[in-house]
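## Example record

The block below lists the input lines for one assembly entry, exactly as stored, with component labels intact.
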Amino acid sequence: MRISGLWRTTWRYLKLLSQDNKGIIIPWENKVCRHCCIRINDLTVRFGDKAVLDKVSIHIHCGEVMAIVGPNGAGKTTLLRTILGEVPHSGSMESLMGGVEKRMPRIGYVPQKLHLDPDSPVSVTDLAVLAGGKHPVWLGIPKKVLEEAEHALSVFSAGHLAKKRIGELSGGELQRVLLAIAMTAEPELLLLDEPGTGVDIQGLSLFYQLVRSLREQHDIAVIIVTHDLAGISPYVDRIILLNHSVIAEGEPDQVLSDDKMLRTFGPSLWNISRLPTVHEEVKSVD
Amino acid sequence: MIDIWYGLADYLLPHDLARYVFMKNALLAVLLVTPVFGVLGTMVVSNRMAFFTEVLGHSALTGIGIGVLLGISDPTLPMIAIAVALAFLVNLLKDMTHSSMDTVMGVFLAFMVALGITILSRQGGVVKFTTYLIGDILAVTPAQIAWLAVLFIIVFVYWYFAGNALILTSVSGSLARSRMIRTFFVETSFTILLAVVVMVSIRLVGILIINSLLVLPAAAARNAARSISSYTVLSICISVFSGICGLFASYYLGTASGATIVLFSVACYGVSALAGLHRRKAFM
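Predicted structure tokens for the full assembly:
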């Protein structure tokens, strides 16, 4: 029996349970959730005749970190852009917050990269206030707003970066700054796009630990899109293997150890896990 | 209204210049136009739209041509119509096309210039339109100044409310959209505003150099700025400084004002580029 089918059955059951307002228990967490969840149903995206995403259904609960893993060209970025509402699609996306049905969850988005020249004058606080505040940044930032921004950054070990220009940051510093900024939106769903790109191993480990702590403190749902299956698996609760459609779904141990699943996914899964990850590059240096 | 300015200008201008009403008009026009160029230029440079504004400026030729065909004495309206249509089209294409924007712009530039010249040269009278190429800020009328004042207010009110959304969109469109910013609307409104400003001021500074006035102050400010506010404020200051210096210098040298203003902007850019180079060396 396909794991994804099992999950779907489970979720349908949990959905039934969640219709009364008592709260449900997430089985793999043993943690009471105030039945917040985000459902993506039969998401299909076509570019011309080609279905880039074919009936993708994802169900994620708050307090859960999910990785969506797939090879290059599997439709990962398209999935992210669709969730952000940038791509025309069929299928639906809805969120259930505290038992109340809502159309779209509030999304905190951590982009893979920014369209900035290295000499761009945009500073870290500028970016934080741009994304969060109503105050026009070009008129200068008042002290109170500045302090708020610095506080938001310091939560993610980025307070000392406040005065720097974005172009001066290292890959890991930029990811932490972008995470801090995403969190100022008080999101219900946090989307991370390939957070490993250009980040060294210490930076990445610090980053993923911050993400883990967020899920515990804020009870939000986190989706991490990456091609680095081996690197991501210690930090997530559930993994979805995506190759235009959902190939497999399960806890990291299951996905990594299940021979059948590996065979189902074919050599491409091995390719993903065998890609020279950041970890291996460091090992080879040692 | 304008009389208050004339009274004030008597004190501001040197004695030999204060005699001339056209000089007072020109100074007021410069004080209204240059801050607008300074602030819009920051986004033109950040978004790498220099080629787009070049195309926009040159599309004025087609606008003037259509004005002539329709028999309108003041072609400002057809110019604005063509430029706004062009701005909208380019923004739409940016989302849709897969070919390089550079090439698309090149095609637009060729089309706009060629169409304009073809229409204007029908009866061999293309020479009388050279005033649009060079511009003449000393011929500005109080009615035109009133329009510039209206634009000045619109641009700064727009920047006050939409500035954040614009800058965030230029940093990352997806990040902006995740914050519920309608990026297409924001970008399109900016390019349309840019088109209107360029068209209204083209008679003052000329098709050939309007792009430099937009790009240079912001480019110079970028060499020195370390935050968005210092970038914007510096760009405005450099723009106004070059405008005033260029206007006075052009009077004493007997040269075209627009081009002289641009020379001052180039000088500012040169100084800031050298200073930036020096700073980077010290940093390394």
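Residues 65 and 119 of chain B are 5 Å apart (CA to CA). The domain at 2-208 of chain B is CATH 1.10.3470.10 (ABC transporter involved in vitamin B12 uptake, BtuC).
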